[in-house]
Amino acid sequence: MLDDLYNKKIECPVCMSQFEATKVRTKAIKVASRDADFCVYYEGTNPMFYDIQVCENCGYAASSDKFEQLGDSDRKKIKENISPRWNKRSFAGERNIDAAIETFKLALLNLHVRNAKNSEKARICLRIAWMYRLKKDEKEKEFLQFTLNCYKEIYEKERLPADKLDEVTCMYMIAELNRRVGNFDESVKWFSRMISSPEARKNASLLEKARDQFQLAKDQNTD
Ligand SMILES: [Zn+2]
């Protein structure tokens, strides 16, 4: 295994069995750059590839920081809908991008079964899109569109802030994702709405980013 990686024993909160999860050493994480939709590029090992923990025994999969956060009804839903169809396999050790995408799709399936919040689904779908971007795979757009649909539902139906997502960031993401899937009209509309909202003034760096992306969307709209 790479020096950047180490294994940690985890107890599954669904089936209570133990499994090995592979983690990236903090000192090995070096950020190279960021895209306007917050996709991060790394020098060397990409920690995103190791974010999802998958229980090899029952198929429960979730982000490492949310792995313990599930209620009794979630446990029941996973036991009834995921575990019976699960072919036991381990995701420990080095993960290539395809294995990483597989783990995120498992996490997404778990969220669907649990009827989880859109904010959680958006987070996972967006990361799947980013991995397809790294692969230069057209499927990126499909997952950006799923993410966009989640953000629109959040904006319309959920109370914000939720799960670290505030209203201004939600508007920004709707604008930027519309731009990335080619809905330039919608993108311009949402950027202008976001920039003129009083809340945006509290987040100077995001506002500055929004102004750049707004100009880009306007240019693309007239192309
Ligand atoms: Zn389990």
Question: What is the topology?
Answer:
Elements: E1 5-11, E2 18-24, E3 30-34, E4 40-43, E5 52-54, E6 61-63, H1 72-81, H2 97-113, H3 118-134, H4 139-157, H5 167-181, H6 184-196, H7 204-222
Antiparallel strand pairs: 1-2, 3-4, 5-6
Helix pairs in contact: 2-3, 3-4, 4-5, 5-6, 5-7, 6-7
The protein binds zinc ion (ZN).
The site of zinc ion has 8 residues, from loops.
Descriptive report:
- The chain is of the alpha+beta class.
- The protein has a domain at 1-116.
- It is 49% helix and 13% strand.
- The protein is built from seven helices and six strands.
- Strands 1-2 form a two-stranded antiparallel sheet.
- α2 (97-113) packs antiparallel against α3 (118-134).
- It is globular and about 55 Å long.
- The mean pLDDT is 96.
- The structure holds zinc ion.
Which structural traits does this protein have?
binds zinc ion; 6 strands; single chain; two-stranded antiparallel ribbon
Summarize the structure.
The chain is of the alpha+beta class.
